[in-house]
Amino acid sequence: MPVILILREKEYEVNHGMTLRDTLNKIDVQPEAVLAVHQDQLITDEEILIDGAVIKLIAVISGG
Amino acid sequence: MKCRKCGGKAVINMRQHKLSLCTEHYLDWIPEQTERFITKYRMFSPQDRILVAVSGGKDSLSLWDILTQLGYQADGLYIGLGIDGGNGYSDLSQHLSEQFAESRGLSLHVVSVPEEFGATIPEMSTRTLRGKGKPCSVCGLTKRHIMNRMAVESSYDVLATGHNLDDEAAVLFGNTINWQTGFLARQSPVLEAHHPGLMRKVKPLCRFYEREMAAYAILQKIEYVYEECPYAIGSKSIYYKELLNQLEAERPGAKLSFYLSFLKAKDEGLFASKSTQDRTSLNTCHNCGQPTTAPGECAFCRMITAINR
Ligand code: SF4
Ligand SMILES: [Zn+2]
Ligand SMILES: [Zn+2]
To answer: How far is the CA of B256 from the centre of ligand 1 (A)?
Structure first.
């Protein structure tokens, strides 16, 4: 099973076993611009994403 | 990753500080650091009455939360802009600000732009040249005017805003690539009031990354508006933040050092003469009493006259 990352309405499917930081770079999301939630807990960018994980990404950058 | 303080599971890793923390220790760390910045930049003391500009977003609500936790006397000011943008932006942010205040027994002043001036911010911007299709310039001018007025009228000692490091670094970046020396001279964690119609302004969160403030709001379970103001989409400040984050990804701490070394250079006298010049040339608006560079009415009062014509 892959890892699924959800940012707003977008869903990304990637292979498991990489760190969150590497995964974000792979899907072209700036690691500094999001926070990641796995099973209701914030996780750090060093966390290795496990098989079947569903990660909710929260955009943190606002403008104006 | 482990929390540096207790060895428990870390929820955030701040690469620029080489510091990772668990929820409990992160929720202690942010207010401790805020207190440190308040003291370092001589922002205010426990005797001062603080007015916090609250937008319903993560930064301003977190700031209000932190200041009251630290024991400061802080009231809120919410400014209703009348922006809908298909997602009811203003209504939702007002609701969340009021809910925050109520649940903690804090007092919140609410000023509605459409009620007070007869037009919403987007309406105002279509009726004036200042608008040029985007309401941000009208919005900024109006918010500054109302914040100053409310703080001066209600005799607060200081106005606090929730600007974070990413906000400050983006403004600094924009002003630097255009060498806007006048703006650079005025960018600071503390803006002294050099005029009786002006309120002293402080930015206690100016050294926290935007990501850290979002993490604080989430871990502290603060309900904030997640959706952006519709006019922020595609803004220059977001573009600059992305550029700076690209730099940050390769060189952790780049954003912070860009801002801190600017403050240091300024402290050492860079831009000093210019700022003295700015200060002495302020006039008083005949209509509202706030300062203006040209004699007569200030830019805000002129705009209000123009839209009501
Ligand atoms: S994005 Fe523009 S219009 Fe929206 S709140 Fe910010 S300054 Fe005002
Ligand atoms: Zn801990
Ligand atoms: Zn005026």
So the answer is: 25
